[in-house]
Amino acid sequence: MINRRTFLQSSAAVAAFAASAGSARAETPGITDTEIKIGQTMPYSGPASAYGVIGRTESAYFKMINDQGGINGRKINLISLDDAYSPPKTVEQVRRLVEDEKVAFLFQTLGTPSNLAIRPYCNANKVPQLFVATGASVFSDPEHFHWTIGFNPSYQTEARIYGKHILATKPNGKIGVLYQNDGFGKEYLTGLKDGLGADHAGMIVKEASYETSEPTIDSQVVTLQGSGADILLIAATPKFAAQAIRKSYDLGWKGVRYVTNVSVSVTTILKPAGLEKSKGLITAYYGKDPTDARWKDDAGMKEWAAFVGKYMSSKELSDANASYAFGAAQTMIQVLKQCGSDLSRDNVMKQAANLKDLELPLLLPGMKINTSPTNYSPIRQMQLASFDGQSWQLFGELLMG
Amino acid sequence: MAEPGRALGVLVAIAVGVFALAFPFAASGYHLYQGAQVLILMIALIGLNLLTGFNGQISLGHGAFFAIGSYGAAILMVKAGLPFWAAIPLASVVCFIAGFLFGFPALRFGGLYLALATFALAVATPQILSYNGIDALTGGSQGLTIAKPAPPVWTGLNSDQWLYLVCLASAGALYWAARNLVRGRVGRALIAIRDQPIAAETMGINAALYKTTCFGVSALYAGVAGGLSAIAVGFVSPESFGLALSLAFLVGIVVGGLASLGGALFGALFIEFVPNIADQLTVSFGEGAKALPGAIYGVLLILVMAAMPTGVAGVAQAAARALMSSWRPSHEKGGVNVAANCQGKGEAP
Q1: 20 to 30 A from A316, CA-CA: which of A183, B47, B211, B348?
Q2: SS3 helix, strand, coil % of chain A, rounded to 5?
């Protein structure tokens, strides 16, 4: 029912009251003896609808958990609403989830702008905004936004790893950066500078940006080549990454080429660019690539395949977004298990920030998820890989960005 | 209009008004947010209808003016520290100027060519907003977060009620202004330019001036809507103003009814709620259908247009007319109506 109580719950006054009264005894919305009701927004329609598979995978995973008896006898009810990747709609849907559906917390709301739009609301009302599905680094800010926690390594983390690797292997190199002119591309630039440190910022001799509306980025690659750079960082989305890989090879690029792990698919990017032309590329991984034959007999990959076989369709087996969601859902389950019988918002947030050495089936061997009240970046490790003309070969140790 | 027709119209207006005023005291914060969104969309639709419905200039780019209003208000509030009641009018003046200036090249384009030119505006907007050189002002692709304006203490309202009432007052005032505009000399000139441009010029109507001004006023409406949206959502980013927004406006005025100001309300309700309904309907098709809301929305849109080709307003008018004529035999006012009608027309120019 729509009444005054709904409004009161959303007002800061009552939020303060709940805090002072101690939330342990207070009734948490969305939690009953048989159900944990949680919410999320997903771009099922609109420009980013390819990500919708994340929400579907998570729903399917929770269905499996429910089929197995749920968590402490409680079934998980994930309400996943379409926001069309439009921030005003995200705000509306999140308010519906919190005020009308009365969910306990939010899980994996997707998109940088969408999450930025709802972050003030979630924090003012003390609703946990857990494991947001975005690579932007701004969501790991426990000091200012206690109720919002990230999940995957940010683009900055990845770029910092490249920066450190460059310092270790080619301290006198000259770097050219090709980046997409938006938040995604700029995070790489920031991360790379960060990884190099102020003393070595001069190593970047040329930055060239492109707009997603440009048909080709050949001229940018030519400019970068002309600048005398011998290291190339390609911070580009798939189509443009393929162009950059091909063009730089055709121009006879001598040095090392790093490519963002957004654009590493052998079938959709490297083959069109040319496998021979892709030789020697370096990227960083944190998850097991479902299309990589090396994981064929891996126990984690078998777990994934078994789940997909039963709860999803075979075309999702090799979808990186789906396997990403698999890991996020498992992390969520771990948090709920840690909560035990206290599913108050306070405790859910506390446990989300208290993950210790959690290993997931689809993370690279040895990788561990750790969070703390001062560390809201669950996945921080990555491992470098180079392309040998056929597949990506992991090398070196796990690196912290 | 006929006497009973006018009475019916007044009754409907009063009912809508009472509902709109009582709403903030009965609804939850979430529904108030939706209500505010509907009012904001309604303002933008009235603006677009002035341009497209009354003046016959098709714009596929009103999302751009909406964006200028949004960003203008946000920047004035966040960077210059202005209160919202100063920021939104200033931002909408900027929109008026932008719209007026855009109206000049628009003069050279007719029909579909203007649609394409404005389409380009809609496509370019998100990229311009995330442009590097101005990101100190716009926040780049990260956007800007705006603190919600606090209601004056004496009102005793919460911020959702306050925002809703601000939107309601703005929508009411702008509706009233638009109504006066289209019913007067200006409105007749706009319609004349739409229907018979050559005859209109022969009559001494300065078509260029009217068309550019109409573009400016229309953009101003979009700007006010954008500014209100910035404070209601509390956030602006390039993703909020994509091509889909401009297209949604066009859908709104067609569904509501071209050249109908009241229809804007229905158009706004459609844009706001039908995507939600489509999302809900996917549930009945099973988990795998989660990718379908766009398709279902499309089907619903086709159904609505097939059932109401003249928009909701057109159907409402037809229904009212049918109702009137069924009354007529028992009402002796029938004869007077025709006279009143003629008299009304006689007053015209």
Answers
A1: A183
A2: 45, 20, 35
Q: Report which residue type is found at B215.
A: F
B247 touches chain A (CB under 8 A): no
Angstrom distance (rounded) from CA A330 to CA A311: 15
B143 touches chain A (CB under 8 A): yes
Cβ-contact A218, A246 below 8 angstroms: no
In residues, how long is chain A? 401
Beta-carbon pairs below 8 A across chains A and B: 141
How far apart are alpha carbons B312 and B255 in whole angstroms?
Answer: 6
Do B74 and A88 contact (CB within 8 A), yes or no?
A: no
User: Can you tell me the distance from the alpha carbon of B110 to that of A396, in angstroms, rounded to the nearest whole number?
Assistant: 63
- Contact criterion met (CB below 8 Å) for B229 and B40: yes
DSSP structure class, residue A344: -
User: pLDDT tens, position by position, for chain B (349 residues)?
Assistant: 456 667 888 888 899 999 999 999 998 889 999 999 999 999 999 999 999 999 999 999 999 999 999 999 999 999 999 999 999 999 999 999 999 999 888 888 877 888 898 999 998 988 888 877 788 888 887 889 999 888 998 888 999 999 999 999 999 999 999 999 999 999 999 999 999 989 999 989 999 999 999 999 999 999 999 999 999 999 999 989 988 899 999 999 999 999 899 999 999 999 999 988 888 888 777 665 666 778 888 888 999 889 888 888 888 888 888 887 876 655 444 444 433 343 333 333 3
**DSSP of B38-53:** HHHHHHHHHHHHIIII
Residues A17-26: tens digit of each pLDDT: 444 444 444 5
Residue A242: how many other CB atoms lie within 10 Å: 24
Cα distance between residue B90 and residue B71, in whole Å: 11
Task: Give me Rg for the CA atoms of chain B.
Answer: 21
Could you write out the DSSP letters of every residue in B138-187? H-GGG-EE-PPPPPPGGG---HHHHHHHHHHHHHHHHHHHHHHHHHSHHH
Q: What ipTM does the predicted assembly reach?
A: 0.85
Local structure of residue A28 (DSSP, 8 states): P
Most B CBs within 10 Å, among A11, A44, A80, A237, to test the B interface: A44
Q: Is there a contact between A58 and A108 (Cβ–Cβ < 8 Å)? A: yes
Record: contact B26-A2, CB cut-off 8 A: yes
Q: Quote the DSSP letter at residue A375.
A: B
CB A80 within 8 A of CB B287: no
* The pair of three-digit structure tokens given for residue A87, joined into one six-digit string: 């921030």
Contact A295, A362 (CB under 8 A): no
List, edge to edge, every strand of the sheet that includes A282-285: A204-210, A175-180, A231-235, A256-259, A282-285, A381-387, A392-400
Distance CA B262, CA B13 (A): 9
Distance CA A248, CA A232 (A): 9
Can you tell me the distance from the alpha carbon of B48 to that of B58, in angstroms, rounded to the nearest whole number?
A: 9
Spell out which residues of chain A touch residue B237, defining contact as CB-CB under 8 Å: 87, 113, 116-117
| CA–CA separation, B301 and A195 (whole Å) | 51
Which tokens in the block code for residue A4? 């005054």
Rounded Cα–Cα distance for residues B343 and B349 (Å): 12
Alpha-carbon distances, residue A244 vs A247, A249, A250, A255 (angstroms): 5, 8, 10, 14
Alpha carbon distance B62, B122 (integer Å) = 7
DSSP state of A206: E
From the list B158, B287, B292, the residue facing A11 with the nearest CB is B158
Residue of A nearest to B234 (CA): A117
A195 touches A159 (CB < 8 A): yes
Confidence (pTM): 0.84
Sign of torsion over alpha carbons A367, A67, A59, A293: positive
Q: Please give the Cα distance from A89 to A80 (Å, whole number).
A: 13
